């Protein structure tokens, strides 16, 4: 992967695409959690069709596109940390690319930029984590407390 950081919302999913050279098309690929080659817990491998983590982490290789895709589901803040896309080579000299995953608890918006004409309505879709499900919703804007405006 060329992206060094991936950000996800607790309870959501995260997809990472890992690219590799054509000479690695027939090799086993994997996704592991850990900041170093020695301390890397493999969570998914392309040569294993099922695992205990299958609902949590999945991996799909696309040799024609020279990449494999990892999806992490049901994210938790504790999933934050360093991960790596790996290609298995002989004698443990694997080709590895490290990336950081950050999982946050809170609220995010689907589209961070919305626009409309003054006086018209806008819809903003917000995503929130499971922990916020039963908290009261704050009141909408009033003339004394309007939404931020940018012109």
From TrEMBL:
It is found in: Membrane. Pfam families: V-set (PF07686). Keywords: Membrane, Transmembrane. Residues 1-104 form the Ig-like domain. InterPro entries: CD300_family_receptors, Ig-like_dom, Ig-like_dom_sf, Ig-like_fold, Ig_sub, Ig_V-set. One of its GO terms (cellular component) is plasma membrane. The keyword Membrane applies. This is Ig-like domain-containing protein. It comes from Neolamprologus brichardi.
């Amino acid at each position: 992967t060329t992206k060094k950081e991936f950000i996800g919302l607790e309870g959501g999913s995260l997809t990472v695409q890992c690219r590799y050279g054509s000479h690695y098309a027939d090799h086993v690929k994997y996704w592991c959690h850990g900041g170093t080659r020695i301390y890397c817990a493999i969570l998914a491998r392309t040569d294993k069709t099922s695992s205990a983590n299958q609902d949590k982490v999945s991996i799909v290789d696309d040799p024609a596109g020279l990449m494999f895709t990892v999806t992490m589901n049901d994210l938790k803040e504790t999933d934050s940390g360093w991960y790596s896309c790996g290609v298995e080579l002989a004698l443990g000299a694997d080709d590895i690319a490290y990336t950081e995953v950050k999982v946050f608890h809170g609220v995010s918006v689907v589209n961070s930029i919305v626009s409309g004409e003054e006086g018209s309505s806008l819809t903003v879709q917000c995503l929130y984590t499971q922990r916020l499900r039963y908290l009261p919703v704050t009141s909408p804007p009033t003339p004394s407390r309007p939404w931020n405006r940018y012109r």
